[in-house]
Amino acid sequence: MTVLRSYINEIFEYKMLLSYIFFDSLVSLVFWKGQVELLGMLMPIHSFLFFCAGCILVERPYMLPSFLLLTVAWVLLAGMSSQRHHPSPWMRCQSFQHYLQILVTGKSSLSTKRIAPREGWEATQAYDKAWEDRMARDQKIRDEKYARVKELNDIGDDKISTKTDGMLIPVDLLVRMARYQGIIGSK
């Protein structure tokens, strides 16, 4: 039973992380933040490609299925790009060009790189601290929201009504009007 619970907790953790990743990606895409390092600068390449794809789809909507399939590869490459920029060298992966070269030639041109002791330690600690602070801040916001909703639900049990003083339209009048409208509309 404990193994099953750990699997369930892992799934919920992935769900929570996916919401963060989706929100961060959407903010980066919409506000044209730098995503890809090119010539020593972070360029908004993904935002530009998304804009171009949107323009093409507006003019040629029949290309939607091919763009949806392209989006799968695009999301995977963007995920690889974010993983390559992790401050810890143990969390980084090889580039897409590296794997493409191995696929085409069968050989890797990269030599084995040794990771020095405590390489990127300070940056990784700062990255982890920022992530924990964000999670704690969001948990605090969720707790406050839960408390407000609970308070509103406790208050909402009281009967609240408004006096109308006969200003309502009688239901039988609405039924007759709907019948007359149906007769007039059918001619």
Question: Topology of this structure?
Answer:
Blueprint: H1 2-30, E1 36-38, E2 41-43, H2 45-59, H3 64-84, H4 96-105, H5 121-155, H6 171-185
Antiparallel strand pairs: 1-2
Number of strands: 2
Enumerate how many helices there are, as a single number. Answer: 6
Question: Helix content range of the residues, please?
Answer: 55-70%
What profile does the largest beta sheet have?
2 strands, antiparallel
Class per helix and strand makeup: mainly alpha
Strand content: under 5%
Radius of gyration: 28 Å
Overall pLDDT level: 84
Order of helices and strands: HEEHHHHH
**Shape call:** extended
Quaternary state reads single chain
* Poorly predicted spans: none
Strand order of the largest sheet: 1-2
Distance between the termini: 68 Å
Structural overview:
The chain is mainly alpha-helical and 187 residues long. Among the domains are: 32-107, no CATH class; 122-156. Helix content is 67%, strand content 3%. A two-stranded antiparallel sheet has the order 1-2. It is extended, with a radius of gyration of 28 Å. The model has no long low-confidence stretch (mean pLDDT 84).
Q: What's this entry about, in short?
A:
By secondary structure, the protein is mainly alpha-helical. It has six helices and two strands; from the N terminus they run H-E-E-H-H-H-H-H. The longest helix has 35 residues.
Structural descriptors:
187 residues, mainly alpha, two-stranded antiparallel sheet, 6 helices, extended
